[in-house]
Structures are given as structure tokens and as C-alpha cells.
Amino acid sequence: MIDWLHGTASSRAPETDIDLGGQRLPIVLRRLHNARRLTLRLAPDGSEVRISLPAWAQAREAIAFAHARKSWLADQLAKLPARAVPAPDGDVRYRGATLKVAWDAGAARRPCVDNDALRIGGPETGLEGRIRRWLEAEALRLAEADMHDYCAAAGLDPVPISLTRAQRRWGSCSDKSRIRINWRLVQAPDFVRRSVVAHEVAHLVYFDHSPAFHALLARIFEGEIAAADRWLKDHGRGLYVSFG
Question: What is the pTM of this model?
């Protein structure tokens, strides 16, 4: 991510997409009225270049800024793992493990974990969608169980929980009454997903990142928050390489 506060616009209108090593990506602008600076980043799945800009910033200057940082963006794109769409004999990530897709048209359509394999049947067409729906159902089942654990530890009643497909946030809490968890966390090790759920449960009590919030999080979460945060920093983008 690159921040920019003041810059100089070119007299020529910049292009609204950008060529990064032979791959052309759209530049998507998002104006934030409370932003103080322009922020440039690559989408986690490498599908687009994103720019958040303050109310006072000119769109042409923001786009020119992205073109001026082509080298940095290309480096970020090169670091992303190649996209791997689930296919027969391919791989699927599940709870920190890599499962081999064992497809048999005559087997049950519902995926089933069998040691280090994910067995699934039905037509090959739509295979990716069936696996994704199963992963999302698993993500909700696991996160809901996590939420019950941490609400009990914090002395709270359980709250509704749902999934999100956000590309910037792993979890969120709204109005201290509902939490949302990124479904892709089902691919991460359990302690990573659980740390995010614990974080959002702590927000049900403290809607900030105050010392009291961190004290509660440390009390209810059984692992090391720093280790979970480090895993997401190092490997989080890799959770976006499947399913688009």
C-alpha cells in the first residue's frame, strides 16, 4: 500500500486502466470524505488497482499517481500466487490443510473430507461452485461455533453471525449486535479464523481498540494474537487465489 498527500498532475489525461507486465488492470477510485490522503493498493486477488482518495483530491491526479507507481504495482502483482481454480485432481485449502479434489461423477454431489482428499461427485460442470458453496457452509458452521465459545468466555449472549466476501477486512462488528466473518478464513488454520472471531466478539463489549479491548481479547482468546496476525499478514493474500 502507498500513501500520497500532495502531488502534481500531468497536463494530459491519464488512462483509467494500467498495464502491469503485460496484464492490463482497471483502476478503481473510491472517494472517502474522511480520508486525509490518497491510498494506492492492489486488490487481494490481483484483479484491479484500487485508489482511495479524499474529497479534495482530483481523480486525474489520483490516476496519474497510479501510473507513476507502475513499477511498485507490478512488483506487488508478481508476488501474488497464481490463481488456482478447484478442478479434478487439483487442490483445495481447508482449515490450514491442502486437500486433493477426488472427483467421481457417480459419487455424492456433496463434498466430503476423507483424510487428505475432498471427495465430490456430480457433473464436472459446476464443480467449482459446489466446492465454494460447501466451503462457505463450513465457514459459517465453524465461525458460529467459535462465536458461541467466545461469547460464553466474555459473559455475553450469542449474537447473529454471517459471512462476508469483503476483500479488505477479515471481520466486522455492527452496532454491537452482529458480527460478520470473511468466508475465506475457512481456508486458514483454525487458530487464525478463531482469532478473528474472538476479535469481533471483543468488539461487542468495546467498540474500539482501547487497552480494555485488548485485555478482553487476550483473556478470551486461547492462542497468540500476534501469531495469528502475522499469519494473515504473510499468507492472507493467498486465500484469494481460488474462486476469484
Answer: 0.73
